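Entry type: protein chain
Record version: 2
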Amino acid sequence: MYFALYHGDMKHIFLIALVICSLISSQVSAQGIIRDTELETAVKKWSEPLIIAAGLSPKSVNIIFVQDSGINAFVAGGSNIFIYTGLIEKADNPQELLGVIAHELGHISGGHLIRTHEALRNASYETMLGTILGVGAAIVSGNAGAAGAVSTAANLTAQRKFLSYSRSHESSADQAALSFLKTAKIDPEGLVSFFGKLQDQDLLPQSQQLEYVRTHPLTRNRIDAIKIRAESSPLFKTGMSKDKKETFNRLKGKLTGFINPQHVEWTYSQTDTSITALYARSISNYRLHKKEEALKGVDKLLNLEPNNPYFLELKGQMLVDFGDIKEALPYYKKAIQNVSEPALIRTAYAHALIESTESNPAILKEAISELKKAYLTEPKSLRIQRLLGTAYGRLGQEGKANVHLAEEAILKGQNDYAKQRINKALKHLDNGSTDWFHAQDILNLIKQREES
């Protein structure tokens, strides 16, 4: 998680890295966006056949993970599926997670998104989550999520009104999900078994029901209808490959290690020598600031799989957080070379480069180059804009620095602050330059927002 403090002009901007971490791991009760290449890559790959079966482009559907111990998933801001980590924790296998994703795709393909707020379409995922959940704007950086958990009854009521579907929409999404699973050749048992875990919720008072059940009305008749159709499928109980199960188990271990590090010791016994258990223990030790044990653990992982980009990323992340920034750089570089979607790791590498120097122009320019590459696939990243602003600021290029800080503010919905930054930027930019035109585009967007 990153915080930025401002003191006067750009020369006095400095970044404090409190925890250098791809996963957001604030208080378990708080709600924030989790960005992790391993998690996103795996679930995106598994979901692509479902997205195509739904008649959608995989590039148009985003799956966003929210750190929250609750069991919930919803669609908002267009084709964006938000999934709580508590739901992944509850799922026993990848089929159950994919069953939920198929259901949410049913809402997208069914056009059940009439409550979508137009302003969310140009927002970052962090801002989008904050708006949907009613938690307000205290978002401090691109790697952090919303300020905290929703606490007031008014906010909960507004959230449910925004996210809730009618029973007819739920049944329609169920049937669509089963069709998508069949077309994608995915075992539908996961949809049945996951909803089966929640079937007693409709007997509880609404105030005691899980949030997923409150917003997705679940009845015994509905579960029975899903079960009858799923059991008639030739794919029922065919399961998934061992590789997918292994990846899913690793992801669950990784999440436990980052979010609930103190739970690892009773989740994985000391006699468990699996890679999943070693992964979870290494991360847990890192999160609990046990440097020696953490580094020994990740080195064991790298001895077993020396080119695993996520183990390499973890080693780099640990070294940066333990203060050995320059030693971390080779691990990040090797990770980037061994992963298909390196944007998030590029961003972490760039951050490490920036933190490794105060004023070395060559290193800062390398960081900027990496951030610009990452931006191509992460155009809504608050963190990239903040880091670009920091790097250009350290190079003394105040005009460019302020343009990127304005971009960050735009993604947060902070129009007035964005305008202030652009006005400062224009004092340092040459008329007709690329950055000058970029600044004009931002001013035009602000004007459109103010007039709408």
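Comment: The chain is about 60% helix and 5% strand.
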